[in-house]
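2-oxoglutarate ferredoxin oxidoreductase subunit alpha structure dump, as promised
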Amino acid sequence: MGPSSNGTGSQPRQKLERVVIRFAGDSGDGMQLTGDRFTSEAALFGNDLATQPNYPAEIRAPQGTLPGVSSFQIQIADYDILTAGDRPDVLVAMNPAALKANIDDLPRGGLVIANSDEFTKRNLAKVGYDANPLDDDSLSDYVVQAVAMTTLTLGAVEEIGATKKDGQRAKNMFALGLLSWMYGRPIETSETFIREKFARKPDIAEANVLALRAGWNYGETTEAFGTTYEVAPAKLVSGEYRQISGNTAMAYGLVAAGHLANLQVVLGSYPITPASDILHELSKHKNFNVLTFQAEDEIAGIGAAIGASYGGALGVTTTSGPGVSLKSEAMGLAVMTELPLVIVDVQRGGPSTGLPTKTEQADLLQAMFGRNGESPVAVLAPRSPSDCFDIAVEAARIAIKYHTPVVVLSDGAIANGSEPWRIPDIAGYAPIEHTFAEPGEPFQPYARDPETLARQFAIPGTPGLEHRIGGLESANGSGNISYDPGNHDLMVRLRQAKVAGIEVPDLQVDDPTGDAELLILGWGSSYGPIGEACRQARKKGIKVAHAQLRHLNPFPANLGDVLARYPQVVCPEMNLGQLALLLRARYLVDVQSVTKVQGLAFLADEIGRVIRAALGGTLAEIEQDKTMVARLGAVTVGSGVGAEA
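structure tokens r here:
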């Protein structure tokens, strides 16, 4: 397992069902890489896991400051889990800023492992510490292990003559080695990864490997850590698994959709956080008939995708909320021309630039209505990182079958989070059927399939099937430009009826007893926190049902019946109640809205409090209090006081 032994020394080993670890440091300290490697080790060991990175918004904030703190949280367990955990059991703090930014999330009795070398007077002053918290009693509620990681790393790499700069950069690998030792994670795969990553820089590779081993050996030889821990492999459904993030799963799903439809996938995209990784991943798969075009701006990206769809390919564009705003006119063009198009919106905090690296679910109404005129599109939302694969296939299937744009609403928590994914057998997926008009066949560009209302489609340049489509209103059937009032009314209603008639699966409800009086209805990344909160509530004898919407336009046909079945329906969202607004308007049901717009995903504990408040009749008051607190916190003209920015 490790570099110097086959076990973990003489320390007693404590068995745990689960543990939550958070690595935190400067954005340049390699915390994301450290967390990713620990995740890979846990995945290979067979644990169930879920991760949640947290990136600073600044590209490179001043070193050692609070705005520059980057963190990576992972929960590993010996059973099926749904979230990366509410609060860490272990906090690895590489500097004072990381400690201060994260210590309030650590429960009493939690373990702090701090890089004591970075707790200098200068670094302490940067974040407002008057004294070193590692030396006074301010951390008395926690178990604190101060480890001179930088010094020990420099000592480990001294034998190869590594520079001080290269040695200091490897301290994150020391932390990885130490945590791997604590939890019995094998590090051989991380060594292999390091050597491959730095194959062209063997000196740097060797320095990082030595630091990794030094961290492991420190745990083996020091008496500071009296206990090691074991989290056994989880009993998952048999199959071949791999760790996957939401963005990677989305990319793989689009590749699979192209294969199932026997169409080229053409991605026209402009890089934007947090969606860029989909572009990066798809660019690696030209061998699967995928073409990627990194456009000069958002409008050019969707324009290229629409052109590809017009030419007979599957056009895709990826973006985030600000990009959707720029793409809105072109989305309307795709609606008017009735072309298959997949738009992936990885939502982030807004409006405008907003919170580029933080999550939110506030683009639902924009996806539904954010274009001029009556401009209906299908809207889907994955519920977890691995679900992005199936949602991408579903989006492509709808787009091609119904000749319509489809918006996929992912979000930052799903896109950057990861979990084990059972690799599916693509042969088990139904082919995505499509038809192109052939020469000699009767053809009108707006003649429709009687069941789906999808219009007839001919690839441009097909002899005898020359036709014209565009942004001006088209005549029913012929597609000629028409300003006739009756024709416009007809075409508007046909486009709406086509989207409204899309076949989607019925909504599945998790209600074990069948007699719960409270339904928690979510969408997107709230799936994990709601599911975990319902599990915990049921263990306490509370009857609560849970349903998660993946199809947001059109809604599942049985949604009205589901809502009518429960006396109370609560809808938690990372916005100010957008889905609740739609449900109230459509079904005339008193859906209770629970809102959060902090750039952070819901915690299971928060949803647990929501369940108790709903059953106790105090939920409405809590929501009203949020607005009141905001008003009271406002800095008013002339006062000079208010909420801290």
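Residues 4-8 have pLDDT under 50 and may be disordered.
lmk if u need the other ones
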